[in-house]
Amino acid sequence: MTIQRNPTRPVRIGRVTVGGGHAIAVQSMTATRTQDVDATVALVNALEEAGADIVRIAVDSEKDAAALAEIRRQTTATLSVDLQENYRLAERVAPHVDKIRYNPGHLYHHQRHLPWQEKVRFIASVAEDHDCALRVGVNCGSVDPEKKKQFAPDDDVGPILHSGLEHCEFLDDIGFTRYVVSLKDSDPAKVVAINRAFAQARPDVPLHLGVTEAGLPPDGIIKTRIAFEQLIGRGIGDTVRVSLTVPNDQKWQEIAAAREIIEDIQAGRLRSVVALDPSHLNIISCPSCSRVENEAFVELAQEVKKRTAYARDYAITIAVMGCRVNGPGETDDADLGLWCGPTRVNLKRGTETVGAFTYDEILDRLQEELDALIEAKTRAPAPG
Ligand code: SF4
Q1: Same structural domain, 124 and 221
Q2: 320 and which of 198, 232, 301, 358 could share a cystine (Cβ 3.0–4.6 Å)?
């Protein structure tokens, strides 16, 4: 199958180049504690051996940054760092990585008096000084609140799309063009809509594709395949990440799934004629990372899937998130949501918080809420 790729500009990330017709680069991310240098180095190397072109590591603190320096010393992999709230850590981490990902939706947390433009100018100058590329990484679970206000509450595409476009415009204006963009949602249909609109507006900017919080295999792989087939099949996408909720020793599955999907698309073996069935239970869960509040998260997500299987024929979305970064936002859009704290799990019914429960209590509490929801749906008069 001949695919006419978008004429994106080449962006070098260490020894990997994305865009400009280069092979689609496959990425993954460590979910070990970054300060656990041995475990993180082992996972980085395992992912590289599994075929990862780029491996991302989360950094939230000075201690994480110090650990990253040691991780860099012990591995030859092409590294990317994931910054969320604390953008000022860019200066500490840039010497040790090939790319910095920042999230426009989390820049407001620190130095609230400073406009985002000044923060991005700082990150770009640090990247310039340390031969790093940038990723403007917009995520549905943490869209800039100021951007959201500019759009209708039910507009899920506009805020993400325009947050990305706005940052591209600013980076171009300050003369920093060594960046890629990601616009992620947990709904594959929205990922397709947003990235097609972006590629229409900015065909020159390389795109990092991904369905965020795609969940547990095989569902997470199916959701991702649906989006990737619709985008890569149209020449959109220069690097990809399949976000799966799996234990660290199974993270290689992200690479294997990505390579299989890309190969199938390029060979014309498309499978996503089957649309995601919205009338069935949909479990959204994040792939975990160093920020996960409790090591029991992946097991909890697996238990949620087992415990709620009886509800598979109900159009209900349950979100299971590892921490505060995308937890509160992503669970807002779900019928029932769990986001983890160190010793308790926050349970939500849509945007309403039901309470925080221990890891032993949470599954029973979730089931009570699910039963009540099913009851309400069963009693509700049939539409039309
Ligand atoms: S929600 Fe938190 S734990 Fe999960 S991937 Fe995002 S930052 Fe990591």
Answers
A1: yes
A2: 301
Q: Is 288 in the pocket of ligand 1 (CB under 6 A)?
A: yes
User: Does one domain contain both 194 and 316?
Assistant: no
Mean pLDDT by runs of 10 across the 384 residues of the chain is 89 98 97 96 98 97 97 97 92 98 92 95 98 96 88 92 97 98 95 97 98 93 95 96 96 97 91 63 89 91 95 93 84 91 94 94 97 90 65
Burial class (CB in 10 A: 0-12, 13-18, 19+), 343: exposed
Q: Are residues 213 and 300 in the same domain?
A: no
Query: Does residue 346 have its Cβ closer than 6 Å to ligand 1?
Result: no
Q: Is 327 close to ligand 1, i.e. is its CB under 6 Å away?
A: yes
Ligand 1 atom at minimum distance from 84 CA: 7
Q: Whose CA is nearest to atom 7 of ligand 1?
A: 325
What region, left, alpha or beta, does residue 334 occupy, with left being phi > 0 and alpha being psi -120 to 50 degrees? beta
**17 and 148 part of one domain:** yes
- Give the side-chain half-sphere CA count within 13 A for 210: 28
